Amino acid sequence: MKVSLSSILRIVLPAIVAACAAACSSGRSSEFELSREDYAVNPDTEQQTETVYLEGTLPIDQVDSKTLRADVWKIDDTHYPDSVHAFVRVLDSQNNFVTRMGPPHFRGADAYQTHWREVREELSYFDAYRNIHNVDDFVVREYSDGDSIPFAISLVLDHGGSMGGAIDALIDGSKIFVSMKRSYDRMAILTFSNTPDVIAEITNNKRVLNDALEEKGGLDEQGRYTALYDAALAGIKQIDDEPAGSPRVLVIFTDGEDNYSREDALAVYDLAVKNEVSVYPIGFGYTNDDVLGELARRTGGKFYKAYSRDELLAIFRDLYLSLRNYYRVSWAPPDKPLLHEVTVTIDAPGRDIPMLAVGEYDRTIGDEIARVFIREEENQDQEAEIRSKFEDIAANQDGKFADNRKHSDDGDTRNGDDSNGDNSSGDNKDSDKRGDDGDGDNSTVAPKHDQAQFEEVLANKFDQTTRSGRQETFDLPDNLFFDVGEDKLRPEAFVVLRSIANSLKGSTGVRLRIVGHTDNTWVAAGSKKEIERLNLLLSRRRAKAVEGFLVKEGIDRERLQSLGRGMSQPVASNDTEEGRARNRRVEFVIIRQ
Prior knowledge:
The strands form five sheets. Strands 11-10-9-12-13-14 form a six-stranded mixed β-sheet, sandwiched between helices. The chain contains 15 helices and 21 strands. By secondary structure, the protein is α/β, with parallel strands linked by helices. The longest helix is centred in the C-terminal third of the chain and has 25 residues, at 528-552. The chain has helices at residues 5-12, 36-39, 166-179, 206-215, 228-239, 265-274, 289-298, 309-324, 367-374, 380-395, 401-413, 451-468, 494-505, 528-552, 577-583; strands at residues 18-20, 56-59, 69-76, 84-91, 96-99, 116-125, 129-134, 138-143, 152-158, 186-192, 196-203, 248-256, 277-286, 304-306, 326-331, 339-346, 355-362, 471-477, 510-517, 560-566, 585-592.
């Protein structure tokens, strides 16, 4: 069955609504306040609102133990399966880290082990398998003000023209970070837009570092260019000659995705692992949260997301305090390619109920496929080959998964049009056939006489955005652009995209954001997080494909932005075929220049 563009216009374009009341400009708001909903790309890596930021430290004998709580700041599984380390914080009601609860700084009357009761792992795979593993042997070590371990830190700051009003908050946050530095810590500061610039070479002199920040208070002139990965590599090289006993840390702040580096995220990962550098990205705005989060996790670091000036300042303070103050709980984990949820049970004198610190680390994918996720331009053949290997491992794990996975897959393949789960092996090609004869034809060829109507509608929307500053959006179904499970544009999509390009050429006062969305299915995938991750990757590749076509049609890349939201922003229920079809879409957001 052929679907004409006129049919799409009748269904889709009347539903176009204003997406945002705030006018957009090329700079950032001086108030530095952002919407979490607008800027949340990947719920897996997004900083959550309930995150606790440290304010200071206090010893256990100066706090009310009944008000204490605990959390897991991060889990380092870079040495898995030999060891795993949970970085646990015990906090009072004012968000102070509570010290002297573990060796070598423990001050209690009993042995410290009486207060660190239990470490437990809950192992799970998708919703098909769950198993509890009690850790028999674990070790606790306190790191706090009593330690004098020198850190080597590279602070790398986005300084491009797109930062706008956020630059003052960034400089203030950096000054807070420098002010907290111990005298024996060594630090380098770099800024970047289209190239990295070392403004303070590695030093332990606070005055030198502060002077460098004072002199670099203004923005660079390279507009929106962001050489994020080149800057990260330069930051790592600043600390690679530091003594082996010094923990090496890369803190990198960015307000956008990389668009100018000669190297990629995988090069950053490889150099960080080689030089034993933990990566701590801080994202603001439209950052590639999935890649930044994976870089952090896979190097033993942590990803932060900032939405306001106050939150950014709190993040800088929390980051330095948490690097210095934590209880490291270490154990030998069960070697299983599963999701591991960790619960550490802690007690303190005077408490009736113990504290629970909960975190997780994901081993449903191995280090090889993690490299594929980190790479911006994924090698899909390599991804499929590696994924197949890890699926085989999971399928044979304890003999538990094969039947459950088969049952899940069979269910997916009977869902009709919901098969478009946006995957290379899924998206269910059998059930996505649109032709009456079942030949798999899902063409949406647009008759040429409809193009003038389409371009007229676009021209009106572009004009409305230019005059009012209000963003306008319209969606088109993804099968207009792509075959099932593919990120290569169909020839039939060219006519629609050329119309969009023509409209952009005729309206230089707007930019276009291209956002890929999927439903929540993926045939033969593993855990829910893996489904989310795979959908996110494919949606990103599809958005980039649309962006690339428009660039080839003569549209300046500076006027375009491509994002993948995966399954995180449905517009309808994924419980019905019709809802899933609506969720599989390409969204276009028109923004004033």
